[in-house]
Amino acid sequence: MQQESSSTPKPVAIIKAQVFALVNACPAGRVTTYGWIGKALGYPRGARMIGWIMNDAHGDVPAQRVVNSKGELSGSWAFGQKGRMRQLLEAEGVELLSEERVDIKRYGWDPSRDLDPNELRHIIETTSPDMSGSSKRLLFLLQNDPASPLREELRGTEE
């Protein structure tokens, strides 16, 4: 079980909610990537950050729909059971090229490309902050990891 932080800096709560809103917008039977979600939110080099946020996902986020840029099921370990991510995708009609890889050209859903610009803006602008808290690990990574696009912005905030 993840240890929750008592307070989540507001930018993190907003970005986390926006990530989850875009993942929820990804249609069943399609997959998106960490990079596409990051790009749609204005963080074109934020794929790693999106992965950290997805690790904090709760049950109502269809996390199985997020793969890496090669279509690999890179987050499958987070599902608690070997093969569970694959099973969830196959149940949605996604055929895998191999046990751990999706044909990204066939099943890929890029919110910047596949959503109308007004619809994308609406999802991003109307999403309420996720006040459920964030794991201490997520906050630490966002504040300290050199790959975090929020590192400077969050410097000095509470963990």
UniProtKB/TrEMBL annotation:
SUPFAM superfamilies: Methylated DNA-protein cysteine methyltransferase, C-terminal domain (SSF46767). GO terms for molecular function: catalytic activity. Keywords: DNA damage. Residues 17-94 form the Methylated-DNA-[protein]-cysteine S-methyltransferase DNA binding domain. InterPro entries: ATL_DNA_repair, MethylDNA_cys_MeTrfase_DNA-bd, MethylDNA_cys_MeTrfase_DNAb, WH-like_DNA-bd_sf. One of its GO terms (biological process) is DNA repair. The keyword DNA damage applies. The keyword DNA damage applies. It holds the Pfam family DNA_binding_1. This is Methylated-DNA-[protein]-cysteine S-methyltransferase DNA binding domain-containing protein. It comes from Ktedonospora formicarum.
